[in-house]
Design a protein that fits this description.
The protein is of the alpha/beta class and about 220 residues long. Helices cover about 30% and strands about 25% of the residues. It has a 6-stranded parallel sheet, with helices on both faces.
């Protein structure tokens, strides 16, 4: 299956959802961005072509979008936990094959898993547990396979990158991977600027090809 055949829908255009949607679109994937807020939709429409305003807690609205035809749907609704949970539940009932949902905390995450999220991500939480699926590395804190060739990974900043800016690291050109966010203690930088310097405490949230991610992960 080629890139153009893979379709993603991103629901919720906050900082995290916007960052993931833009990264996927720039990588050449078909992306539909959805938000209930008209202002956010207008702002985002300048960045990508497929963006719609819709209430995703309404089953009829979701079905009208043809959401079942998307390979992966990312529920990135942040502020409204009820909307986040109800959207996830409806996506499962409609039959979306792969649902990735953003959780605010452990309890929220467990709830999302129970109602049918295939993967749960905690973009605003420091990962205490080190989980690596398909990759063996002490650096990898969390790994989500968005598609057979594309992953979203949380990784502790390798020593080779520390002290360098994102522009200097040039990860997109070298490895085909994009840093969509940097977690620095309690702070989360979304999206990080090219001039952002990588520090020893940083956790990088990356979207990219599995091969590119693996090369980064092998860095000392």
């Amino acid at each position: 299956m080629g890139k153009k055949d893979k379709q993603f829908a991103i629901i919720g255009l906050g900082r995290f959802g916007t960052s993931v949607a833009l990264t996927l679109a720039k990588a050449g994937y078909e992306v539909l961005a959805i938000d209930a807020d008209e202002e956010r939709v207008q702002k985002f429409s300048e960045e990508v072509t497929h963006v719609v305003q819709a209430d995703t807690t309404d089953e009829a609205s979701l079905k009208a979008l043809g959401i079942r035809n998307f390979d992966t749907v990312v529920v990135a609704i942040g502020e409204d936990i009820q909307a986040n949970v109800l959207t996830t539940l409806l996506l499962r009932e409609i039959g979306v094959p792969n649902i990735v949902a953003k959780a605010r905390n452990e309890l929220h995450g467990k709830m999302l898993e129970k109602i049918g999220a295939d993967k749960v991500i905690y973009p605003e939480r420091d990962m205490g547990a080190r989980v690596a699926h398909n990759l063996v590395s002490s650096n990898v804190l969390d790994f989500i396979e968005l598609s057979p060739n594309l992953s979203l990974v949380e990784v502790a900043a390798p020593k080779a990158l520390q002290g360098r800016t994102l522009a200097e690291a040039n990860l997109r050109a070298l490895y085909g991977i994009n840093v969509v966010a940097i977690k620095r203690g309690e702070q989360i930088i979304v999206p990080p600027r090219p001039g952002e310097q990588i520090t020893a405490e940083d956790i990088l949230i990356i979207v990219g090809s599995n091969s590119g991610v693996q090369k980064l992960e092998e860095m000392e």
